[in-house]
Amino acid sequence: MQESSIFSLLHLPPMSLLQEGLLYKHIYSCLSLAGIIVSVYGFCLEVIKEYDPSYTPLCDVNQQVSCTKAMMSSWGRGFGIVSTLFDEDSVLNQRNPVYGVAFYTLLLIVPIIKEELIATVGFVLVCASIFVTVYLMFILAFRIKTLCLVCVTIYIINFALFITVLFYRSVDKRLSAKKRL
């Protein structure tokens, strides 16, 4: 049974494993960069809103669609968890976008250090982000009860990263198997 790739699923012409791996690496890097950009945007929104409470960003459409309602909530710092474990003023209790910038920057650095780390370290980090994403989706839907466009964009990036890393791991395993032959 032949291992499926996104190319066979989309009925695209086949690529070599090296080309396919390179494509996934580029997608991974672009998604990581997008995560940094969205996180920086979210951070800027929070800072501006904190200093100017009358500021209304474009993502605040109404009470049901409001990024500031979500981001300025108690879950907008340290994922709503850090302040319960440490002091409210702890250096660890940062705005969520700060963690996002650090996380996506780390994802960008991983392949620079050693490309093979995407399949292992990148996979572990992205899997951890999926757990955080599901937790924050639950908080957004059932506690804050609003739709945060910035948050949803981050969730989409995280799920896309997860899928990309899964495909990359598949290519990495097939390349390793070919090398052993």
Protein traits:
de novo design (two linked rop proteins), mainly alpha
Structural overview:
This protein has 181 residues and is mainly α. The protein has one domain: VKOR domain (de novo design (two linked rop proteins), Up-down Bundle), CATH 1.20.1440. 70% of the residues lie in helices and 0% in strands. It contains seven helices and no strands. The chain has helices at 6-9, 17-51, 67-71, 82-85, 96-113, 117-144, 149-180. The mean pLDDT is 87.
Query: What structural category arises from helix and sheet content?
Result: mainly alpha
The beta-strand count equals 0
Strand residues, percent:
under 5%
Q: How do the SSEs run, as a string of H and E? A: HHHHHHH
Unreliable stretches, pLDDT < 50, 5 or more residues?
Answer: none
- CATH top level label: Mainly Alpha
Radius of gyration: 19 Å
- Let me know the average pLDDT: 87
N-end to C-end Cα span:
18 Å
Proportion in helices: 55-70%
**In the CATH scheme, what's the topology name?**
de novo design (two linked rop proteins)
Count of individual domains: 1
CATH-defined superfamily: VKOR domain
Quaternary structure: single chain
Number of helices: 7
CATH architecture, by name, is Up-down Bundle
Identify the overall geometry. elongated
